[in-house]
Amino acid sequence: MKKLLYGVAYYDEYMPHERLEEDIRMMKEAGINVVRIAESTWSTHEPQNGVFDFSSVDRVLDAMHQAGIHVIVGTPTYAVPTWMVKEHPNVLAETAKGQGRYGARQIMDITNPTYLFYAERIIRKLIGRVSNHPAVIGYQTDNETKHYDTAGSNVQLQFVKYMRETYTTLDNLNKELGLDYWSNRINSWEDFPSVVGTINGSLGAEFAKFQRKLVTEFLAWQAAIVNEYKRPGQFVTQNFDFEWRGYSYGVQPSVDHFAASAAFDIAGVDIYHPSQDELTGIEISLGGDMTRSLKRSNYLVIETQAQAFPNWTPYPGQLRLQAFSHLASGANMVAYWHWHSIHNSFETYWKGLLSHDFKPNPVYNEAKTIGRDFDRLSNQLIDLRKNNRVAIMVSNEALTALEWFKLPGGKTYNDVVRWMYDELYKMNIECDFIHPSYARLEDYELIVVPALYAVTDEALVRLNAFALNGGHVIYSFKSGFASEAIKVRTTDQPGIIHEACGITYRMFVEPKNVGLKGDLFREGEAADSVHSWMELITPTTAEVLAHYDHPQWGDYAAVTQNRYGKGTATYIGCMTSSTVMNTILKAAVQEAGLWGIDQELAFPVIVKSGMNREDQAVRYYFNYSDKPVSLTYPHVSGQELLEERLIKSGEQLLIEPWGVRIIVE
Amino acid sequence: MKKLLYGVAYYDEYMPHERLEEDIRMMKEAGINVVRIAESTWSTHEPQNGVFDFSSVDRVLDAMHQAGIHVIVGTPTYAVPTWMVKEHPNVLAETAKGQGRYGARQIMDITNPTYLFYAERIIRKLIGRVSNHPAVIGYQTDNETKHYDTAGSNVQLQFVKYMRETYTTLDNLNKELGLDYWSNRINSWEDFPSVVGTINGSLGAEFAKFQRKLVTEFLAWQAAIVNEYKRPGQFVTQNFDFEWRGYSYGVQPSVDHFAASAAFDIAGVDIYHPSQDELTGIEISLGGDMTRSLKRSNYLVIETQAQAFPNWTPYPGQLRLQAFSHLASGANMVAYWHWHSIHNSFETYWKGLLSHDFKPNPVYNEAKTIGRDFDRLSNQLIDLRKNNRVAIMVSNEALTALEWFKLPGGKTYNDVVRWMYDELYKMNIECDFIHPSYARLEDYELIVVPALYAVTDEALVRLNAFALNGGHVIYSFKSGFASEAIKVRTTDQPGIIHEACGITYRMFVEPKNVGLKGDLFREGEAADSVHSWMELITPTTAEVLAHYDHPQWGDYAAVTQNRYGKGTATYIGCMTSSTVMNTILKAAVQEAGLWGIDQELAFPVIVKSGMNREDQAVRYYFNYSDKPVSLTYPHVSGQELLEERLIKSGEQLLIEPWGVRIIVE
Amino acid sequence: MKKLLYGVAYYDEYMPHERLEEDIRMMKEAGINVVRIAESTWSTHEPQNGVFDFSSVDRVLDAMHQAGIHVIVGTPTYAVPTWMVKEHPNVLAETAKGQGRYGARQIMDITNPTYLFYAERIIRKLIGRVSNHPAVIGYQTDNETKHYDTAGSNVQLQFVKYMRETYTTLDNLNKELGLDYWSNRINSWEDFPSVVGTINGSLGAEFAKFQRKLVTEFLAWQAAIVNEYKRPGQFVTQNFDFEWRGYSYGVQPSVDHFAASAAFDIAGVDIYHPSQDELTGIEISLGGDMTRSLKRSNYLVIETQAQAFPNWTPYPGQLRLQAFSHLASGANMVAYWHWHSIHNSFETYWKGLLSHDFKPNPVYNEAKTIGRDFDRLSNQLIDLRKNNRVAIMVSNEALTALEWFKLPGGKTYNDVVRWMYDELYKMNIECDFIHPSYARLEDYELIVVPALYAVTDEALVRLNAFALNGGHVIYSFKSGFASEAIKVRTTDQPGIIHEACGITYRMFVEPKNVGLKGDLFREGEAADSVHSWMELITPTTAEVLAHYDHPQWGDYAAVTQNRYGKGTATYIGCMTSSTVMNTILKAAVQEAGLWGIDQELAFPVIVKSGMNREDQAVRYYFNYSDKPVSLTYPHVSGQELLEERLIKSGEQLLIEPWGVRIIVE
């Protein structure tokens, strides 16, 4: 990447009247230097089977090039045209809810050969036409691709073959998945029942894993086609996204980002988040850390919000704060979905930089300041490198397993991830994300492991070795409980890691009116703080950091820490309030020797840092609040880039509400 | 109509044992002078295909006639018999939920030719048989007719043709409906997808409009058949009803009452409402105003509640209060659903005048007093004429549009209508309802326009002209936002009416902890009063009546008023508490010069008035509370009809809890 | 039964590794003397169509016999194998929701001949093989059998024939079910519509009754097959269960326990209940009373909880308390579901005596003390006989009727049953359950009748006669309202029993802010205590125990008592708080002369008693609280069996939290 990209999604096809020239004029004024086009408009580009019309692509490319604006071209495959569904209704995914209906995007069976035939043809037509255009800097395959719950008989057939490859014999399959239970045993491959009705979580989770594999394969297939046309200097990316709870919340359940990102040159991502009084920056940081970890490199924010929803319209200053927050996590591009607000259909109220009237407005006006600063500071801020000492271990497999075996009260895997991540964020501990299969654990000092419920023996053995050799690990409850096939381990619990943790438990209960007691906590801090889950822990060699505060379960340990070889393993046997989690994490971070001067600051003051291309330390200070904050600048003197002045070590730094400072040493 | 009608629905077919003579004796005692029969009993009248048995109709007609009770005969077409469904299962409507199942009423495809064939046959047999009977004064076609979400392939086919007629070309269709979005574009009429899965609100709303058209056509078809048999003096009506929220709430989403009522001689209606401590009279007034506005004439209350549900059993006095409230809105008939409580099936707990034991009970006993008074006062109270100066503009199109583009927090179009109507009611401002296509706006001084979201340019231009020429208009938020095809206007907002309103806005947010500030409000009155929606308004020429009270949005206007030509346009950019709405409306009513002596009274004292056949002013005073109220009678002296005494101007008028007085000048 | 049975469900088939010897060793240590095997493992025992493998049954039988542990063998028919569904998909029940899907247990059509053919074959193979094995003491047919909502065309056809047998003529059918309403009339048997869409509660309730009959017939069919193999001394039982609300709540809606139990030698049952702070013993008592009443004899608790769910893990002492509570209600067996916690699939978190690690744990350790005591005290505690003077009359028919005609606010039939039963339990009044068809009402002094909504004339006439002859009856609201076909009675209400009750009502309302007033209540006790339902009662000859406390309904009676012949009939016209119910019941119990010394004690001190095989009075005293309780022992001196010491009359008896004492006179 040569410079920071500041962009928008642009849909010439959706315009109610001719706007191209005026739009480009306004984009230039706002410093927009890249647009993404063409995804989601298949029916415009191929109005009838085999009839192509790329005139809107051509004219946008030419006009953008003339204006010096780069273009990322998306393959239009995630929304199928009406003619295709009318000709071949079975391109729609059959799911557990039955045959699909035309209407929305993302409703097809991504393994259907008819769909794949047409998809390949339009990709080749489009990419072949545009790849030599000088405006084009890269490609996005499809968009927010998932498996759309495809589960028809063709998918089932492939799944049975996949299961035979995975488990080899039916005896092995029946045993690992526990299929004797409720007479689910399969004694001949021909008897393999459709999995849509299964009540066996092991089987259901294997199917979910298989469905994620379909996504990986589909994306690799698209990337390979696009690669045939890609010119030197161009990139291919995918727009990944996260578990959606009205905003980007956590690990994406339907896609294995680690696996699927392998086919791409650079990782791209959607990040959407609460705003106004609810803006914290957590999702920007979380999404950035997750995406940066995919290829362990910088990434593109392909979509984030401009005005968006009525409840997200940013307060003055917030759009700037958000933009620089993305850079501080390692993004090389920040692009809005989308340029103009759409006048019909589903996302009319998901507003772009411009409102429906196309006139300048306060948000657009703020974007202009961002565009100027991105341009001015590009060389100093691009390609930020991190050297994080802390990693969080996450897995789709654990997530799926906890969907089948839910926590009482409704908390999910991503809630556990967020419970731990959010407190690290608030104490300004930056981190990477790793999968349990990650081999080089020694890259880190501290590994945080939320609810690693379903996992191989190997991964747990590797974590034990990591601690033995001097690493520090923090486990939450439920970790190690079951095999990768979600068979509960028959050993002492927590499975395998009980060795490093120096504890065991045989019983677990749902907490009601339970607090914690222990030296770690101030008077009253941990009262009534336990919810969702509690394991009744007996230490073998571990030190007890907290016992349960409960008339019946008070003798059991809740939080323990064990010295194991040269390292430590901390185990948190229950879900707690965020305050308590903060206290426990702080102690563990200090134990690992990672508590530094930036940790003395805390949310709403957020600090992010890294090294730039010139190997200068770049430090971002964010004020995530509606009050001004003041802090003593704790590092060596440096140049503040936005106000363009020297900041001396020890100088008082005042940051306005929703403000940001960037200091280069 | 020669006299006030006081009636019941009567089902001889449902009787557990012979009751006719005894029922008529008890009806006569209660002053019942009309019964409605025969709707919903097709399976009794045509027990097998082509075999007819109208014996229960004959005997009821004869017996009623002998007793001097009139009869309205309903066509029995809204509940199909078992034999028809068994012979022709596809008479049941196919909806977005799939093929229908036999069981309930109102489950057929009203466009199905098999159904229409049988329906026409039974209508001709029944009406041909009874039309010369001297007991029959009129007919009701079908009952509470709707489209029952019919959406099978035959309906889809008609819809495609309708769309071609409406939009002529696909280019026009694609553009107006924004079908390029998410690849929904239709490039050949053959590709037109089934609309049941659409995510395009413009397309979905067109289908809803088309479905309402099916209702209009079906009812006109039935009315035309019945008209062939109708004798002079007889009428044909339809029993319209309203959006149902456990009671009659607002504009009926599935029927265009304005269009559908054209085929009928007189409008009829269902009105059901909360009772006991929740009885306010609002629904009686609202339903009456809406129904009177259909043909701008008197109307029939074909169904209203007697005992009804356990939570509606009226307190002593309430049945009387309700009956006279209907008359005060212009009804010429008040009829109960129904005479006797039904002993089996779905509506066992929707009780009639009589309980299941058929014995006199407190509600029946109260009805006897109503029957006596209706009879005695018929000449003075019948055919009440209104000359309202205020109209509320409502539309099915805006309602449907706001179903597709919902307000945050769950409020709907009818909530906005009720938010405005209810306060008019409480300040004793009587009003008519008009559709945006209504041409003679100059009939009124003040037009209230709730959330007119989807509407033609012409209607908005006409409203601007109305203000220019001296009229007064009050708009709520969202008015003028989109075209009749729900394409957001690209002009300044509010679209077109921003000219008369003298304002514009480019942003809107979801209010949290937002109040209003302005001279209009007393200290604290408007704190925390804004919910659901707020537009960030900048006045151009308008006076600001209220700003938002919020740290970030406080510079924007919330409520404005603009002098425009000889009139004014008031714009309310947010949804508020009812208290605030009352304050704003009061100011606007005063501005329009419509604040009179009856407005000094307020709910729970409700005043309704009009001119009777003798051109005498008739004034109703209602006490909608459980406490006695006292008021100074503000008009010229007149005769009170219930207590039969003279009331002098300025005299103190005491009304008992749930009481009523009727004064004729 | 020769001795008390203490058992577990045992699934050798589900074991992750060879455990049999070790499991038996641990069972013996815990005093387990019976296991239940083989139900739910059809796919293991018949891995392919016609291929049988009973090796796990054989080896478990042999090993258990060698260890002196008895075995109950279940027929494996309630979970069908994969091959059967693959070969014959239509063995799955078609329900109102459509065709079934393979996955869960209990999904087949129990009338499907293919299923019945295979079921009969595996039953004969299995039972024929094991019946001569000395370990086998009895059999369980199927498990928790229900009709699984089977409603396919074959079931519908049988239902039509059943209806013709029941009602003989269509005229009679149409009249009794009120099918004229909404044109539901059936005028030819061929027109009989599928009942899945019906809105007629009478028809729907008949179908529910028919479905329950299918269960009765299916179980009798299985029992008859097993009886062919049964040796002298062996028994056949069925594992009945209750309405499930996350635990055993009340009358089972889908099975007529009274009818279905006729085919069995002894009644068996599932009882699950809240635990920890929510443990009250009510469900143990209720389930026991209901099951003991089926065959009016002792019964087997075939399943109850060991560790079970995280929110049920018992506090120390609770497992013992529960075990002896079962005996105190007349159980001769207490068995846990299940021995070991399962490592995969649906019930991984429904834990057994052992956790997944198979190690001894606190709950298992407590079981050891129970096993020892059961063994030691078997002769004194087995075959406890009751001679209860109070009965509660319950019926599936009333339950179903109240599902169709729901109480406002969501309370159901079983809520009414529990509202009355729970207070009897708390005042230590033991009772039996009887069906309205029970002929010998004179067996009792007091009959409590909750919401007997749909019932024959005969049953009500019998209840009147019971009161006339000196019995005491307590009715709740809604009793007598409708016929067995759910046709509301046209007589005065409450239908027929108004004679004995000396009251009538014609109106009923939904209470809001309603209390009671009357001499029965202490100051304020009954304020705001009425909810869900209230009938406006006028006494004819009854004494009013309470009027409603409400401004409009205050003249009506709420609770009445009438002397009728030599007895009394109490009528409660509304649903009240539990405190008020307690007060009313106490008065009625005293009136019936049933208030004794054990009634002076009250929950959390629970007393149960009976006569043992030696005709000794056995009295259980339970402390259902987490505080020690002290009471003056009120009976003649006796031997306390657990502490093995003499308790003198009048001695102070101290019971620890969750403790139990058993005293034999």
From TrEMBL, chains A, B, C:
GO cellular component: beta-galactosidase complex
Pfam families assigned: Glyco_hydro_42, Glyco_hydro_42C, Glyco_hydro_42M
GO MF annotation terms: beta-galactosidase activity; metal ion binding
Family matches, as CDD domains: A4_beta-galactosidase_middle_domain (cd03143)
Leading EC class: hydrolase
Keyword Hydrolase attributed: yes
InterPro entries in the cross-refs: Beta_galactosidase_C, Beta_galactosidase_Trimer, Class_I_gatase-like, GH, Glyco_hydro_42, Glyco_hydro_42_N
UniProt EC number: 3.2.1.23
An example Gene Ontology biological process: galactose metabolic process
Top-level lineage group: Bacteria
Keyword terms: Glycosidase, Hydrolase, Metal-binding, Zinc
Catalyzed chemical reaction(s): Hydrolysis of terminal non-reducing beta-D-galactose residues in beta-D-galactosides
Family named by the database record: Belongs to the glycosyl hydrolase 42 family.
Protein name (database record): Beta-galactosidase
